[in-house]
Amino acid sequence: MEKILNIHELKKHYGRIKAVHNINIDVERGQVFGILGPNGSGKTTLLSIIMGIIRPQAGTYSWFGNRGEDSGWKKRIGSLIETPNFYPFINLKDNLRIVAQIKEVCAADIDRVLKITGLYERRRYSYRTLSLGMKQRLAIASVLLGDPEVMLLDEPTNGLDPEGIAEVRTIIQDEAGKGKTIILASHILAEVEKVCTHVAVLKNGELLSKGRVGELLGADRVFLISAPDAGRLEELLTRAGMAKSIERKGEELIITCPDSILASELNKFAFEHDIVLSKLLPVKKSLESQFLELVK
Amino acid sequence: MRKLLNIELIKLLRYTSFKVVLGLHFALFLLVVFVSSQINITVPGFDTANLFRFPHVWSYFTWIASWFNLLLAILVIMITGNEFSYSTFRKHVIDGLSRGDLLKGKLLVAVMIALYGFVLVFLSGMVYGSVYTSGTGISTIFGGIERIFIYFLQALAYMVIGLLLVVMLRSTALSIILFVLLRFPIEPIIRSFFPQSFRAFFPMKAVGSLTPVPEFLSISSENGFETPNGADTLSLSEIGILSPGLPFPLQISIVLAYIMLFAGLALVILKKRDL
Predict the structure, then answer these.
(1) Which one of A47, A101, A151 would you mutate to disrupt binding with B, by most B Cβ within 10 Å of its Cβ?
(2) Which of these, A100, A213, A248, B184, has the minimum number of CB atoms within 10 Å of its CB?
(3) In sequence order, what E strands does chain A have?
(4) B94 and A104 in contact by Cβ < 8 A?
(5) Where are the alpha helices (DSSP H) in B200-242?
(6) Counted domains in chain B
C-alpha cells in the first residue's frame, strides 16, 4: 500500500505540558484514519504540526514521501484544523476564491462545493453573517475544493446540528468510497466508530493505541452469561483461567475472556460441569467503553 | 507572484476600512495642497507661488505627502493585523502558501500602496506645475523629479517598519501605537544619547530625512539673495534653522538597507514562530 503520511517521533512540549510526545503514525492510501482523544490530548497540535503551522521540537513527518514544507503536496490535501478561518467582510464565494487561488484550483469548482454543503444560496453574503454551523460548513466546503485525494478533518462536526452531522458523515463516507484517504480527529466516538477503518488513541500527547477499528474493538471478548448457579460457574471459570475478569450481577455474569475463547467453548465448559446456561450473549465492546478503558 | 497579487487584490477590494483610509489619504493630501495654494503672502521679493512651479513643486509636494505616510503605514498594519486576528495566515499555510509567500504578499501590498502615492504626487505635481509655470522646457519640469522616487522609497520604508511591528506584535492596535510612539518620542529620546553624527542613522530619522523641509525662503525669493560667492543667505539649513542632513545617496542607501533588514527580520520571525 502506498504510504500517504508518515509521522516519526514527533514531539512538541509547551513548558511542562506534553502536547505531543514521541508519536509515530503511518497512514496508507484509502484508509479512513481516526485520531481519538479527550480534550487537550494533542490531536489539534499533532495535525497543526503535520500541516506546517506549528514547529515540532523533534521528529519528522512526510506526506507522499516528501519531507517538510513546500513541495506542492498541500495542494493534494484538503484540511480543516480546529476552527473555520475566513475573512468576515468577504462573501462566501470570494472567500473560497482565495482558497482556490492558493490551491491553484479552477474557480468553477467553487459552486460545486457550495452546493454540496448547502451554502450556495448564501454565496453572496459576507462570512460574518453566518451562524456557527454554517461557518463550519464553509470550512468543509473549503476542504472539498479541488477534490483533493486526502482530507484532513479536525472535529468536522463542531457546531453542526444533527442533520449537519449526518451530512458530514455522508460526505466522509462518499469520499472514502471514492478511494480518498481521510484523517479524522475527534473526541466524538460514535463519529469515529461509524466511519473509520483505522484508529489511533491519544492521551496527554502520547499514543496509547492504534490499529484497525475492528481489532481495537475485538481485543477482548465479552460475554453475558446467565445461569442458575452463577456463583459456582464464576469460581470454575476463574480457576480454569478462561476469564480475565468476571463481574457478577445476581444471576448474570459479565465475563471478559482472552480473544481465543469462543462462545461455544464457554457453553461446552459449563455443560461439562453440569451447569446449563439460560443465556449466553456475546457483547460487542463499544468503542466508547474501549476508549474509556484506554484513557483511564 | 501573480497568484499572490490576485489573492491580495481580492482582500483589498472588499475591505471597507482600507478604502476609507486610502480615501482619507487622497483627500487630505489634495486638501493641503489646495489650501496652501490659496495662501498668498505678499511680501515684496517673495512669491509663494514659486513653490508650485517646476521644479520646486516636486520637493514641496513630496514633503507634504510625507506628512501622511503614517496613514499608509497604518494601512499595512491593519491589513496584516487582520491576517493574525482572523487566523487567515494560518489558513493560508494550511492551504499551501509558504511563510515566505505570506510576507511577499504583504510586501506586494506595500509596493502597490507606495506606487499609488507616487502616482498621486506625480499627477498632482504635473497639474499644479503646468498651471503655475509658463513656458518651461522639459529639463525644468523633470529637474528634481527624482524626489518622487525618493518619496516612494520613504513611503515603502515606513510601511516595512509597520509590517515588522505587526509581525512581531500580532496586534493592530499595539503596532499602530508603537509606530506612532517610535517616531516621537521613543526614537528621538534614544537618539539624544548618541553623538550628533550617529543620529542620522536611526531608522525613523533616516527615513524621515528623505523628504526634507523645502527651502521656503530661498524658493519663494527665487534665490534672489545669493551672495557673490554663491552662499544663499535665505537657505534655512545654511542659516542653521534646519540641521543639514547626510548626502542623499548615503541616505538612500541607509534606507534601502533598513528596508531589507526589516523585511528580512519579519521573514525570520514568520518562519520561526508557530502560526
Answers:
(1) A101
(2) B184
(3) 3-14, 17-28, 32-36, 58-63, 66-67, 77-80, 150-154, 181-186, 198-203, 206-212, 221-226, 245-249, 252-257, 279-283
(4) no
(5) 203-208, 216-220, 236-239
(6) 1
Q: Is A120 exposed, middle or buried (0-12, 13-18, 19+ CB in 10 A)?
A: middle
ipTM associated with this complex: 0.90
Determine the distance in angstroms separating the CA of A217 from the nearest CA of chain B, rounded to an integer. Answer: 33
pLDDT at res. B172? 97
Which residues, other chains included, contact B190 with Cβ-Cβ below 8 Å and sequence gap of 6+?
B202
Mutate to test the interface with B, among A46, A71, A82, A85 (most CBs of B within 10 A): A85
pLDDT tens for A183-202 read 999 887 777 878 899 999 89
- Return d(Cα A136, Cα A139) in angstroms, integer: 5
Question: B120 lies in which domain range?
Answer: 2-272
Q: Nearest CA of chain B to the CA of A86: how many Å?
A: 6
Superfamily (CATH) of domain A3-216: P-loop containing nucleotide triphosphate hydrolases (3.40.50.300)
Amino acid at A71: S
Interface contacts (A, B; CB < 8 Å): 71
User: Do the domains at A3-216 and A221-295 have one common CATH topology?
Assistant: no
Would you place residue B215 in the very low, low, confident or very high pLDDT band (cuts 50, 70, 90)? confident
Q: Span A81-94, mean pLDDT?
A: 95
With contacts defined as CB-CB under 8 Å, which chain B residues touch A92? none
Provide the 8-state DSSP code for B182: I
Contact A69 B274 (CB under 8 A): no
CB contacts of B96 in chain A (<8 Å) are 72, 74-75, 102-103
Neighboring chain B residues of A87 at a CB cutoff of 8 Å: 11, 14-15, 82, 86, 88
Domain borders along chain A are 3-216, 221-295
CB A14 within 8 A of CB A42: no
Question: Confidence band (pLDDT; 50, 70, 90) for B242?
Answer: low
